[in-house]
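Now for a sample.
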Amino acid sequence: MNGNIDLTESRRLRVEASSYHSAEAACSQTRRIYDLVAPLYSLSSQLFHSRAHRAALAISGIENGMRVLEVGMGSGEMFHQLIRINQDGETIGTDLSPKMAELSQKSAREHFPKVAAHCQSADVRYLPFPDGSFDAIMCCYLFELLPKEDVAKTVGELRRVLKPGGRLTVILVAQNKASFNALYKAAGRMVPAFWGRQVEKSIATLLVSKGFTIHKDQYLRQLFYSSRVLSTIAIEGTQGQSR
């Protein structure tokens, strides 16, 4: 019996190791792709994301004087808007791509030289901040790029660094239009590290299970691009759920 148990355990460990290396490889590929497209990514954001950005800011509850985090900030379009709202507070942005973080930091310093704003390269699965560090978090089109096995872990990590009662605002690629879904799926098959996959239908339930309550929820379109914007509040007493 001990031999069988050891064999089963050995298989489990091999599966876990394979899954881990697969997830790390996917994240590494995403990092390389976004480093390459960093100089041009702002055009894509302006064409397809700007309307969702405005909607997210309107329902985010972010006010001047807060400590605000944006994860997956990309080329910094949303980050600039957060700084503009929060000029007396502190705004921090992270992105898996060092090039994205570098370009966003340079732009922030040029446009807001006297504001406390900082960009850095960081993996959202392992954020380098203590528990309860932020009053609000903004997350735009990030979950689509994560390995499937890391989505729940990432939601828990966002909850960990958010204060109880804090606000998490999430923008997702929506799944409410069949024609758009088909187009997005095709793009994802061609360049998965850039487009990722649609996960919108599962995220709301996952957020609730990880200690958030849904405050506002809306769908919108820009050109042919569909987005869903969720505003959530971190429930008191659930900070440890990420671990």
Q: What stands out?
A: The longest strand covers residues 162-173. The CA atoms of residues 11 and 148 lie 21 Å apart.
